[in-house]
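Re: weekly structure request thread

Next one in the queue (106 aa):
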Amino acid sequence: MLKDKIYYSISEIADEFKVTTTALRYWEKCFPVLKPEKNKRNVRLYRKQDVETIRKIVYLTREKGLSLEGVKKELSRQRIQGGEEEVLQTLLDTRDFLLELKKQLN
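Done, posted below.
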């Protein structure tokens, strides 16, 4: 299990998910959402959101048996759904605010 820190090295990620560093580099090309930061020496620094994306990729390929193309479609679908949920929550919050404001004005 990865320790709780801000950045993880490519070797830590590879060890955690039992994949090669080459696979991780390849996935960066396949999945635009996977963009680890790089320091001045061009060393990859994976953040928690990168780790979660890799976790999803590994799950979808190993457990669900999806191809990389299938994983791309699934990740895209999940991002769209997540965006829709965020917009819906914003609209609900705005409605609640306006109803409260209306109540105060009356």
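The chain has a mean pLDDT of 89. Residues 68-105 form the longest helix (38 residues).
Next request, please.
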